[in-house]
Amino acid sequence: MKKILLRFALLNSFACCALLASTGCESRDAEKPEAMPETTTDLGGSAPIEEAGSTTGGAGVNVPEEKPEMKNSEPALDPDGNPVKPEAEAKPKAEEKPKADPKPEKKAEETSQTKPEEKTELVSKEAKSDAKVAGDWPMWGGDPTRNMVNKTTGISLNFKPGEGDDKGENIVWVSKLGSQTYGNPVVANGQVYVGTNNGGKYRPQHKDDLGVVLCFDEKTGDFKWQLSREKLPQGRVNDWPEQGICSTPCIEGDRVWVVTNRCELMCLDANGFYDNENDGPYKDEKDTDKTDADIIWNLDMIEDLGVFPHNLATSSPVVHGDYVFLLTSNGVDEAHLEVPAPRAPCFLAINKNTGEIIWEDNTPFDQILHGQWSSPAIGVVNGQTQVYFPGGDGWLYAFTPEGDGDGNAKLIWKFDLNPKDSKWELGGRGTRNAIISTPVFKDNSVVLGVGQDPEHGEGVGHIYRIDATKKGDISPQISDGKEGWKENPNSGQIWHYGGEDTDGKLTGKKGELLYRRTMSTVGIEDGLVYAPDLSGFVHCLDFATGKRYWEYDMFAACWGSPMVVDGKVFIGNEDGMLIILKAGKEKKLLEEKTFNSSIYSTPTIANGHMFVSDRSRLYKIKVTE
After folding, report:
1. Between the CA of residue 104 and those of 100, 115, 448, what are the distances in Å?
2. What pTM was computed for the model?
3. Which of 451, 524, 422 minimizes the C-alpha distance to 6?
4. Which of 152, 168, 321, 452 has its Cβ near the most Cβ atoms within 10 Å?
5. 212 φ, ψ to 5°?
């Protein structure tokens, strides 16, 4: 069966869906920005030429000099994406103590590829005493910046998923999901939410293929309620069979926002019908038992806005203040030749309380390459909030959250994430890519890579760090007015990694791809960027320069995103392996954990536990004392 990209998280998105291609959460500590090096190379940056990649063909890393304004770190965000006052970020002194390493470091040559059986000490006594536990994880990425990093410490690797009906070791509970699951688990206010299909058969009256959101009790894993949405009658062109709901819900207080397989933005009551009330203006639920979802309001983007989702609608919403932002997944027709609804909105700002449209934008009009399965992110740049829209034309757009006041978007800047000589060709044969992963905001900048439907196979990819303090077209190149291109003096490119290693200086093989198409959202921590690609290579890059420190081959496709926590990088793959790497500049495999089926989603850390969804099960795992 076709495995469409809409398995996010994206993931997007998707894993994804990917799809994958997402507050009640605890704000993350603001981190000090990395100082940009003063010396430069022929690449325009600080990375040594033998480490930075090829200097030809647009490959490798390009790093311009740091702009003074880039030295400001972004304020920490509260659950609404607003800046947190400094006094709210103060931490007790005890939390600032360094955690002792369980055992001495080995030399790099001894640890670059540690075998799984060479397990490290799990958690030292000192680490346990200094451990801190982050709270809920209520949306894709944890907060509106979408950075895949969790502040929990004292993480133990002393767990093992069971086989078949066996629960396993230090597995708190296992709950059944559908037969295919691409949604990412989120945790808020004592409940866990996952988008999947109807394979779990929790509601006996529903026996057909559906898109569903399942809600479980966080403590016990008991099923609480289910949102059930029938498949669209148009079939796979708009709603691919068995893919379920790939959008990751966003939770704030007692409200849940999610995009359904029917291209609806729904606001749900987190309590379902357990409160014996049908809340909100929407009263047309077919299912009103205690274990059904209570719909507060519903925006049907096909019926009300004329949107034409390609294969599936998957965007994971983000909430900021009174607004909820999302992509509509407007895309091409079944033949992949035309955009049936170019005037339909591609990006929306909605009143989170009423479902009223505040403003909309139909960029990129008829230039959509395929589908639009990514998700929005939010950043605060020198005190000004920006909303990031990964467009279906391979451009990233930054808008003001309030729009222009007349129902339209107000553009701050835009950036083309593909080389100007790249070409889009059907079936993935070209070099131009769309965007499936989600933008990540950090230190007045955005990190984002490009990719395609996984059925299109491997291909050249690119990842950029973009200066979010600029205005206008900040692409690396702009038109020269003569049907060609010239270097952009207003370029917002801080660095670029990708393309081909044409001279073999970095990979040891001429023509080798440095970075491949990706659906994964990055994690940025301690000056390092962890960026998987679809082919299963995890790249560790320098956040300041884009220099590659290492690449780890998982030997299986990667649809999900990394979770960076407590000096470790957790990431799942299509073989059902949860790979655990050591965070840092030296490559080291800590362990591999085998699950029952493919992991297309991203591990979630919340309240001292890890939540992992493979294709058909949701696991709550004890990872802290």
Report:
1. 10, 17, 35
2. 0.83
3. 451
4. 452
5. -140, 155
Dist CA 454 CA 476 (whole Å): 27
Distance set, CA 219 to CA 152, 169, 224, 605 (Å): 19, 17, 12, 14
Distance CA 429, CA 353 (A): 44
Among candidates 599, 528, 594, which has minimal Cα distance to 560?
Answer: 599
Q: Is the peptide bond before 364 cis (omega within 30 degrees of 0)?
A: yes
For position 380, what pLDDT does the model report?
98
Angle at 162 between CA 158 and CA 167, to 5 degrees: 95
Q: Are 419 and 425 in contact (CB under 8 A)?
A: no
Closest CA to 497 of 441, 452, 541: 541
Q: Compute the CA torsion angle 545, 463, 22, 239 (nearest 10 deg).
A: 180
Q: Please, is 130 exposed, middle or buried when counting C-beta atoms within 10 Å of its C-beta (0-12, 13-18, 19+)?
A: middle
DSSP state of 234: T
Q: Which residues, including other chains, have CB under 8 Å from residue 382's CB and lie 6 or more apart?
A: 69, 72, 444, 469
Sign of CA dihedral 400, 405, 409, 410: negative
Strand boundaries in 335-444, DSSP class E: 347-351, 357-361, 377-381, 384-390, 395-399, 411-416, 440-442
Residues contacting residue 405 through CB under 8 Å, at least 6 positions apart:
none
Strands 323-327 and 347-351, by their bridges, are: antiparallel
The two structure tokens encoding residue 601: 């989603």
- As given in the structure block, the two tokens for residue 115 are 């075998």
Those residues of the chain that have pLDDT short of 70 are 1-129
Looking at residue 37, what DSSP letter applies? Answer: P
Angle at CA 483, nearest 5°, toward 480 and 488?
25
Give the Cα separation of 191 and 91 in Å (integer). 27
Q: Check residue 281 and report its DSSP letter.
A: S
Q: How many CB atoms lie within 10 A of CB 423?
A: 10
- Which position has the token pair 């996010």? 8
pLDDT tens digit string along 425-473?
A: 999 999 999 999 999 999 999 999 999 998 898 999 999 999 999 999 9
End-to-end CA distance of the chain: 42
What does 100-118 look like in DSSP terms, one character per residue? Answer: PPSSPPPPHHHHTT--TTS
Q: Where are the beta strands (DSSP E) in 246-285?
A: 250-252, 255-259, 264-269
Q: Which two tokens stand for residue 528?
A: 């390092």
pLDDT for 506 equals 87
Give CA torsion, residues 24, 388, 476, 457, to 10 deg: 80
| CB atoms inside a 10 Å sphere around CB 10 | 42
Contacts of 26 (CB under 8 A, 6+ apart): 134, 135, 136, 151
- Helix or strand holding residue 253 (H, E): none
> Buried b / exposed e across 60-84, counting CB within 10 Å, b at 16+?
bbbbbebeeebeeebbbbbbbbbbb
Give just the sign of the alpha carbon dihedral 329, 331, 334, 339: positive
Do strands 440-442 and 411-416 pair parallel, antiparallel, or not at all (unpaired)? unpaired
